[in-house]
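Researcher: I'm preparing a figure for a lab meeting and need a structural model of a single chain. I don't have an experimental structure, so a prediction will have to do for now. The sequence is pasted below. Please return the structure as C-alpha cells so I can convert it later.
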Amino acid sequence: MADTFLPKKGNYRNLIAFQKTECIYDITYYFAHSYLDKGDRTIDQTYKCGAGKPAGTTAGL
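Model: Understood. Here is the structure written out cell by cell.
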C-alpha cells in the first residue's frame, strides 16, 4: 500500500498545521484570561475565535 497523506494511525499532533494552531490557541487563551476583565463577554468570544468555533454555535450542532 502506498504512503498516504495522513497515516491510518492518525498522529495529527506531528502535523505542522496542528502545532501552529495549538500555539495560536494557547496565546489567545492566555491573552483573554490575562488582559480582559473577568465576566467580560469578550473573553468568551476571543476564546471561541482562537478555538476556531463560531461564537453562536453549540456543541450539539
